[in-house]
Amino acid sequence: MPYTLEPSYDDNPRLQELVGRLRTYLTDELLPYEQEHGITAESALDRPTLEHVWKRSAELGFYGISLPPELGGQGLNFTELCALKEELTASGAALSHSVLGDMGGPLRVGAVVKYATAYQLERYLMPVVRGELACCFSITEQDAGSDVRRMRTTATRDGDSYVLDGHKVFSSAAPFADFAIVVARMAGTGTDGGEEEAYSAFLVDLDTPGCRVLEGEVPMSGQRMEGDLVFENCRIPAANLLGEAGQGLRIGIGRITLNRLLHCPSLIGAARRSWDLSVAWSKSRVAFGRPLLALQSVQHKLADMATELYAARSMVQATAARADRGENIAVEANMCKLFTSESCFRVADEAVQLHGKAGLTQGHEVERIFRTLRMFRIVTGTTEIHKNAIAKALV
Ligand SMILES: Cc1cc2nc3c(=O)[nH]c(=O)nc-3n(C[C@H](O)[C@H](O)[C@H](O)COP(=O)(O)OP(=O)(O)OC[C@H]3O[C@@H](n4cnc5c(N)ncnc54)[C@H](O)[C@@H]3O)c2cc1C
User: Fold this and answer.
1) 174 CA: nearest ligand 1 atom
2) Å from CA of 219 to ligand 1 middle
3) Per-residue pLDDT for 34 more than 60?
4) I need a labelling partner for 194 at 20 to 30 A (CA). Which of 37, 179, 352, 365 fits?
5) Are 334 and 386 in contact (CB under 8 A)?
6) pTM, entire model
7) Which of 378, 8, 49 is nearest to 219 (CA)?
């Protein structure tokens, strides 16, 4: 088969069937649903709208698809999951983040699932897989982002409970979540770059007395999906400790490492969408008596964009395949997120350039993708932090 930017997955019939079914759902159901209800990427989303997507996705077998069959999934491997994730953002659907549960669903729980007790699985995680509950993940604070060890939120053991105090910011999905996975510092461990064992992770119901969810800042993507969590003498059962006391940073960072890889196909899909729009635009936009596409400099731009996408996807596929073999991908996940976020942003930037003033117009799809992709050079680890991690491991 000759190369196309829209992959066909001829070598994997199961994946080919899944991707085909996902594309059909996105184009025949989700996009028309969004159009009918006036939903855009910047709409404030209510719970019924999201639940509609979660439940339908669960019916179709997509929600929680990567989980093992005993947890209600189909045991999809990382390579296959990456392929599905790329299709979601390539569709341009505003609610694509909710189909596999990136926002509040099974993918937000992610690798944390392996630390859950039987009680935690039944009470919290399985309802998420069924689309009945939603969760957020909260580690960042105002003065603790890249340097998460500076966090000030504390957990104090008191009999059969832990008492949380602190303030988390920028928790994605918090505005509509039922519970949070919170990483906090064990009381009495100091606040200046603590030891790894100083942190623990907890499952916290967001309606617990002493816990408030505040409207978060609106990031430059315009999406209204972040919230702050404030804990004031918030008492939670000791049974809600994830893993063991002192494992919080390992649990949090382990989840982030995998998420760094799993964000990449979403970025590639969004950039692929801006490439598709750019090709269509270059064919239809006429300047100096001929379509833009007739200009060799425009063809070169499109060739560069396609090449960046090919390189990013190749890296991500290779790393996902290593993860599928159970190999440690800590370095490669950082390389993938570093390269993909930078290259997809360059693709989005060229798409804006090709669209001229249309691309600079607020609300135009290439303008929205540009703003969204800009964020991912910071979110889930900044470019500089990825470089630090790669250099530390290799040099
Ligand atoms: C839309 C959005 C969604 C988010 N979702 C979540 C979420 O769901 N849960 C959650 O917990 N957090 C979330 N975050 C937080 C996000 O992960 C952090 O913003 C990110 O880790 C960077 O932290 P910071 O913003 O505090 O920047 P800082 O850490 O203050 O960094 C500022 C600058 O300094 C640089 N820098 C810092 N340290 C170093 C160093 N050692 N070497 C070189 N350069 C350095 C950085 O690269 C950056 O350029 C979200 C953020 C946004 C914007």
Assistant:
1) 8
2) 13
3) yes
4) 179
5) yes
6) 0.95
7) 378
